[in-house]
Write a structure and sequence with these properties.
This protein is mostly helical. It contains eleven helices and six strands. The model has no long low-confidence stretch (mean pLDDT 78).
Length: 387
């Protein structure tokens, strides 16, 4: 066994409030050493999560059995009204969203995160919706595997309590470890999940023969899913932008270049939501929808062209990828308009893919920039054999 001594700068010791012989927890993640001094907080978080599971599980089971007794139900089915699926989704979604909100607030207060209060509400809503969708998929699998099964009210209430408790445990530990990368993952899952669901449930087999935005019009069965996805993704994107640029001090007085980028990025995010607010329906909405879509593409192109002046010391890899994506947008537009090789739907999907991929890449680079702003020190390691 070897003993390693690390000399830490006084600023680190003061900032972390380290004491002599204090125990810290260390992990190796992606070849990086992560040190956490809050071992007691971690243990407390685990206790809180398990207590939350027990509390919500018991309460859910009691609510379920009281409901069945009041409804004079003798046996409970897997699907339909007053069933395992229905009650589990209602209770799981309600308790899960509430649990996430409480834990996110506690995490913010304890860690001193830069996430603002209204951003916490938006992130909570995002995780709540995704949690409900995930729970619905789980219940679909269970109900399909046990199709036609019916159980007594007490057994079914216990099952409901166990499922709701599990859902709450996942939501609680997610909120306790809330980080930037999770918010980006939620944005991607919400956007692409909602679009795929729109494609699968739109009720029009030949939707792709019109245009991509056809998914959100009043001519398909579930156009609201597509529009809601864009609006909700826009709100999440604004939340991430506000968090990132606040941590970078992107204000007019502190950093005007980043402030301009923040303004352009915010306008782009708002344009994404407005495309959902004004679907591509016939009449005046069609013109407004097209105008906003063109404005969105223009904002992305402006940011790509000006990015080398808006971000301090951008890497050449990022610049090359940015210009390649800008070229892809321009080429797809030329191919669509001049040769007719791409259909309108294909062009819109290609353009959307390039634009969204670049925005995610920009978010990651901004996140790295915020890391680079943190002070760095070279420390000395002394390693000796213990006998």
């Amino acid at each position: 066994m070897k003993k390693t001594i690390v000399e830490l700068p006084d600023e680190f010791v003061q900032k972390l409030q380290l004491d002599n012989e204090q125990l810290v927890e260390m992990q190796i993640i992606d070849d990086q050493i992560i040190i956490d001094k809050n071992i007691e907080n971690i243990r407390q978080d685990n206790k809180v999560a398990f207590r939350w599971v027990m509390a919500t599980g018991v309460i859910s089971a009691l609510i379920a059995v009281i409901n069945f007794i009041m409804q004079q139900t003798t046996t409970v089915g897997m699907t339909g009204a007053n069933s395992l699926t229905q009650i589990t989704i209602y209770l799981g979604g309600g308790f899960g969203t509430f649990s996430f909100l409480i834990m996110a607030i506690k995490t913010r207060n304890r860690e001193g995160h830069l996430i603002r209060w209204y951003n916490i509400l938006m992130i909570t809503l995002a995780y709540g919706i995704i949690g409900v969708v995930a729970l619905a998929l789980v219940m679909w699998v269970i109900s399909s595997a046990f199709a036609g099964a019916r159980l007594d009210i007490y057994t079914m209430s216990l099952i409901i309590g166990a499922l709701v408790g599990t859902m709450n445990y996942i939501m609680v530990i997610t909120a306790q470890g809330l980080r930037f990368q999770q918010a980006v993952s939620v944005l991607i899952a919400t956007l692409f999940g909602g679009i795929i669901m729109s494609m699968a449930t739109n009720g029009s087999v030949g939707w792709w023969q019109y245009n991509f935005s056809y998914l959100g019009t009043n001519r398909v069965g579930n156009g609201w899913i597509f529009n809601f996805t864009l609006i909700f993704s826009s709100l999440i994107l604004l939340t991430i932008v506000d968090y990132l640029f606040s941590s970078l001090g992107a204000t007019f007085r502190q950093n005007r270049r980043l402030f301009i980028l923040r303004l352009l990025f915010s306008i782009t995010a708002i344009a994404v939501g407005l495309i959902g607010v004004f679907p591509n329906n016939p009449g005046w909405m069609h013109h407004v929808h097209d105008g906003i879509a063109q404005w969105l593409v223009m904002m992305v192109l402006v940011m790509i062209i000006a990015i080398r002046w808006l971000i301090p010391n951008p890497s050449w890899e990022f610049l090359v990828i940015s210009y390649v994506m800008a070229g892809g947008l321009a080429i797809s537009d030329i191919v669509f308009k001049k040769s007719g090789y791409l259909s309108l739907t294909a062009f819109e999907m290609v353009a959307f893919g390039f634009a969204f991929a670049w925005l995610i890449l920009l978010l990651q680079n901004l996140r790295n920039l915020s890391y680079d702003d943190n002070p760095k020190y070279v420390v000395k390691l002394e390693i000796a054999d213990l006998k």
